Amino acid sequence: MEQLGDLEAEIMDRVWSAREPVAVRDVRGLLDRPLAYTTVMTVMDRLYRKGWLTRERSGRSYLYQPALSRSAYTARMMSEVLSGAEDRGLALLHFVETMNPAEYETLRGAVQWHESQRTPGSERTPPA
Q1: Mean pLDDT throughout 50-54?
Q2: Which of 55, 84, 52 is nearest to 69 (CA)?
Q3: Residue 1: pLDDT band by 50, 70, 90 thresholds?
C-alpha cells in the first residue's frame, strides 16, 4: 500500500473526520492552510484514482467518502511495517512492550474476539 503524502494525509484526515460524504469546498474549508480550490480538487481526484476515496456525483460536483476506514488504513500500514521486520514475533513483542495498560487490554480483547471467530458456533461483536 502506497503511503500518503503530507497534503494527501491532511485531506484524508479531514475526510475521515467528516463521517459523511464531503465536497471539495468542504474539505478546503477544513484544512489548516489556505489552498486553491483546484489544488484540493486535484489531490482528491488523485486519491480517488488511487483507490483511497470513492465519489458520487452531486449536481455539478462530487461528494467523496473514504474507501477504507482510518483504522483499516492504520492496520494495513502496521502490517506493511511488520512485514519488513527480520523477526516478526520479536517486533510484535517490542510493540506490545510500548503499550499502556488500556491499549494492552484492547489488544487482548481483539485477540480473544479473533480466536472466538475461529471456533464454530461462536459469534461475538468485535471489540471497539
Answers
A1: 95
A2: 52
A3: low
Answer for the pair 113, 107: CB distance below 8 angstroms, yes or no.
Answer: no
Q: What residue type is assigned to position 124 of the chain?
A: R
Residue with cell 517490542: 94
pTM given for the model: 0.73
CA 64 vs. chain centroid, Å, equals 15
d(CA 20, CA 66): 9
pLDDT in tens, 10-24: 999 999 999 899 999
Flag whether pLDDT at 122 surpasses 60. Answer: no
Q: Is 24 exposed, middle or buried (0-12, 13-18, 19+ CB in 10 A)?
A: buried
Distance CA 128, CA 110 (A): 9
Give the single-character DSSP code of 22: B
- 82-86 contact pairs (CB < 8 A, 24+): none
Q: Which residues contact 96 (CB under 8 A, 6 or more apart)?
A: 104, 107
